[in-house]
Amino acid sequence: MRIFTNLAVFASAAVVFQAFFTPSSQFVQYKRNRIESTFLQSWRDYVSNGWDADVYRPLSKKGSYMYGSTEKPLGWIIVDSIDSMFLMYNSSAHHREEFKAEILRVEHWIKTKLDYDIDVSVSLFETTIRMLGGLLSAYYLSDLLGVGNSTLYLEKATDLADRMLPAFHHENAKIPYSSVNLHTGESRKNHVDMGSSSTAEFTTLQLEFKYLSAITGDVKYWKEVEKVYKPLYEENNLIDRYDGLVPIYTNPDTARFWGNNIRLGSRGDSFYEYLLKQYLQSDEHLYYELYRESIEGVKRHLISRSKPNGLVYIGEKENGLNGGLSSKMDHLVCFMGGLIAMGATEGWPITEARKQNFWDAEREEDWNLAQDLTYTCYQMYHQIPSGLSPEIVVFNDGLNGETGSWWQSREGDFFVKPADAHNLQRPETVESLMFLYHLTKDSKYRDWGWEIFQSFKIHSGVQCKYTDSECAYTCLKNVLANPPTRSDNVESFWYAETLKYLHLLFQDNVDLRSMVFNTEAHPFPVITPEQTQNGALLNTGWELA
Ligand SMILES: *[C@@H]1O[C@H](CO)[C@@H](O)[C@H](O)[C@H]1NC(C)=O
Ligand SMILES: *[C@@H]1O[C@H](CO)[C@@H](O)[C@H](O)[C@H]1NC(C)=O
Fold first, then answer.
1. What confidence tens digit (pLDDT) does each residue in 346-395 have?
2. Distance 88 CA to ligand 1 centre (A)
3. Active site annotated at which positions (predicted)?
4. Does domain 26-526 have CATH number 1.50.10.10?
5. Ligand 2 centroid distance, CA of 151 (Å)
6. Which among 217, 227, 209 is positioned nearest to 160, based on CA atoms?
7. Any atom of ligand 1 within 6 Å of the Cβ of 112
8. Can you tell me the mean pLDDT for 518-523?
9. Which residues, 6 or more positions from 357, have their beta carbon under 8 angstroms from its beta carbon?
10. Between 96-112 and 150-164, two packed helices, what is the crossing angle to 10 degrees?
């Protein structure tokens, strides 16, 4: 409590000081510099105490491999973190050489130690978004910025993709199974949920494999990942029967949905994200149409407002479209503000977007929704005692029933159940702030992001020295307490996403029309016909019946 107050006073004194004596661009540079230092502290703690582990515990300083029995690392944290270092290297005023040294450290490790010939079954989805995505964007940025050896990243990415590809041609299955053995290529069904694949998982592989096709000129990756959509849409009559919304489980053999649970949180989220992003990546209009159907479905069925202040939220339909709306919302859903803003503007600043031929009433409505959702997600931090969002909130819809043991926000708009009060340093809210800032240049988005960053610094920073030279960052068990209790783990997306999006929020020239971020925040360039070596072959390989 005391620390928080003192720092808040110090921070506002700094604002006054900075406003008087330095141009605002220098103050922005100061904030970017603070985020870079935080990245470097957290990264160095890992390098010193957990190097090359896939799982790292910052409190006990212990690391382990995800598949310990093989004694082979997957590069879970390392590969996920590289492109954040490339981006920070590029725009840093004070730490360029340090970032460069770290990039070269990682590159040497990849060259000498990383070997994906591992006889274990890995998650097709997680390995694609984190490892394949991380290697591909390292390839892109290494080449673009002229640091390191981009060929090395591409070679590793291609090797990993080839090891996962057998998952797509499993006999008798229309949809890939959820895991694949990197040595044998054998794929396996999920061992829970009746063998179902998560709907968001097999529909969140496309950006990565399509980009690989564009770089290598080999269409096989593109063709394989696209095959999932035709059966998914047609077997389920997805547009007419589901209004573009998807239950979170799919039977991979039949491509039919399993169960009725519809939500934009875990297992549902990035289905919607990759529809839009495939359109932004490769200008395939079918995907924009499918995205549009889905967003209209979201507006029709899932949007509501809290009591008493009318915060806009996205609820869940646990019993299908005809069931009631549950007012529970995962923090994961907070990426939707940024996504819907990108869907409305296609990356043009809002004043420019409104002048484009594509602008219409639906997009104006999307744009308002995007801003409202982003505001709600900011409130999920701002109204919490520690300033950090819990994993899940339940909005006050006036019908919540027995809420005796639940914590209620000070203005009454949402509750937190005791089991949901943890924080995994997730990125989705700062992700949306980053998009909204660059589309509007409205400084309130930077102010909100800075407030969130300060809360992370104060509460998830541990063992910090006064000089700021040393600090580790860890997840939190209970954000309702101030200070919160801590847990002993750091997620790779803290490095890959949260700190990267915060850093991008404080960069000035982010062109959202030239790159697309995968669901793990790995940027890929937009694919143009000139960039593809085999342009004519890279096109949408299916249409709706
Ligand atoms: C690298 O930095 C320059 C100068 O700030 C900027 O214009 C460019 O967009 C940056 N590139 C990337 C990939 O961030
Ligand atoms: C870059 O890496 C590739 C692949 O490992 C290697 O063949 C090539 O010699 C390297 N280039 C340089 C300049 O080191």
1. 999 999 999 999 999 999 999 999 999 999 999 999 999 999 999 999 99
2. 10
3. 126, 269, 391, 428
4. yes
5. 6
6. 209
7. no
8. 98
9. none
10. 50
